[in-house]
Specification:
By secondary structure, the protein is mainly alpha-helical. It contains 3 helices and no strands. 0% of the residues are buried.
Length: 96
Amino acid sequence: MDMSALMGDGVTINIKGKDLDKLQTISEDMMKKLEKVDGLDNITNGLEDAGKEYRITVDKAKAMRYSLTVAQVYQQIYAKSKRGFFFLRYRMIPMI
């Protein structure tokens, strides 16, 4: 008898999409359903340790008024984020 199937990681379900908030909601609903299944434990969606994702759009014309390129603005944002500068979710922060 092949015992390797009994020693695997268990059940893995992949949920795909582009809307991260919707994916998280779906995964939490799925976790609640899976918790009711006998024999399944340590159910996780893998998002417990995930960091937040931010999308930043730089106004090219406004950056140019300050003699900056879009790349320079992004470089400064990256440098500040590495030193502990974080953005608040859903809050517009004027970058320049």
